[in-house]
Amino acid sequence: MTATHTTKRAVIAKRVDSGTADTTEIRDLARAAGYEVVDEITQTRTEDPAYHLGEGKVTRLSNAVAREGAAVVIFDNQLGPYQTYNIGNELPERVRVIDRFRLILEIFGQRAQTRKAQLQVELAELRYELPRAEAKASLAKRDERPGFMGLGEYDESREEDIKKQIANIRDELESIEETERHRREQRRESGFDLVALAGYTNAGKSTLLRRLADDLDVDENDDLHPDLDTTAESEDRLFTTLGTTTRRAAVGKREVLVTDTVGFIQDLPHWLVESFKSTLGSVYHADLVLLVVDVSESVEEIREKLVTSHDTLYERNEAPIVTVLNKTDMVDDEEVRRKKDALSSLAPNPVAVSAKQGLNIDDLADRIDHELPDYERERLVLPMTDDTMSLVSWIHDHASVETVDYGDQVVIEFEARPAIIEQSRAKAGELVGASA
């Protein structure tokens, strides 16, 4: 067995207060991070303040690690710094102890491609590390054994360095967010409605984005389509989308920009959600949010995810929310009806689709058109000049033109977003004034 292979072998551990511990998701997360799960230890009991698990289970955990030659223990729980240290003391040497959130950060780090995504991952990692650096400082003062086991080595200046890095990253993220705010306003001024896709990871948001995008087949090579941003892949794996991906779509008379965002995850601590708040800016500042859920999951799972999603969205979001029940190709019509009824209080009048097979996408497009802010109608009477022809061309690009009458004057009737109406009036006023 090679050393590289050994470092990827992991034992899963999970404690629940009651019932039976389900390790399906943590196994999926471990695989997404590149680990091979070779064993698992679970326990149903109240949390032990010192070890999280009971001491007897920690001994069984240590034996499993030694037997399987694992180099990592992954807890599907949030561990405190001292619990990590205590567990590490009971395990064979050089065995890493990471909890659910450290694992998620590893996945984020592997998937971060843009500067913004990389900064958010780094910020989350630093927020995760700060209390552990404080714990190591406390242990050092008590002359505890060197190595700090699951906590890693101790660096006397590390705590202060972390705080400085957090401040620097916040400043850089604020600069990026300001640029993105400016870009959103430019897009609105260009006549686009902004639609954001939100929901849990693996709900099918990226596939839906590709289905809605103009002239793009779900399985088409991305290089053949002129994207605004790189298209997220449609894959059955967690955290395919870490940053945001924006694509153009035609919905009725409207030009719409649809943005896919990082998926929500269950049971995230506040510090981790805060680190990725800027990614949700595309959701908070959209004209409409499509909340995508996997209809093939149980009603209980969907309900829990909807509640958490609403809590996250309603904190700062002002746009209407439409729930999209995706993956109808995996369930029959009767099950879809049953789940619609069961979820009606959380998801009134949802739209059921299969993004993968393109089922009911036209109904979703109609709903998007209906929910977006109403277009206003305008009629402009303009002098017959070269500058007027430029304005007519601009209106064609930014609005839905109904008629244009070219005579002694140019009369144009159109529908558009209120911002476009205002701009066209201002431009028309300048033309009329210039020709007077």
Kindly report the average pLDDT value.
Answer: 81
CATH architecture tag of the largest domain: 3-Layer(aba) Sandwich
By secondary-structure content and strand pairing, the structural class works out as alpha/beta
Strand content: 15-25%
Number of domains: 4
The helical percent reads 40-55%
Number of helices: 15
Q: Regions with pLDDT < 50 over 5+ consecutive residues?
A: 1-6, 215-241
Radius of gyration, CA atoms, in whole angstroms: 27 Å
Q: For this structure, what is the CATH class of the largest domain? A: Alpha Beta
CATH superfamily membership of the largest domain: P-loop containing nucleotide triphosphate hydrolases
Dominant shape: elongated
How far apart the termini lie comes to 87 Å
Main pleated-sheet profile: 6 strands, mixed
Give the tally of β-strands: 13
Spatial order of the strands forming the largest sheet? 6-7-5-8-9-10
Pattern of helices and strands? HEHEHEHEHHHEHEEHHEHEHEHEHEEH
Task: Find the CATH topology of the largest domain.
Answer: Rossmann fold
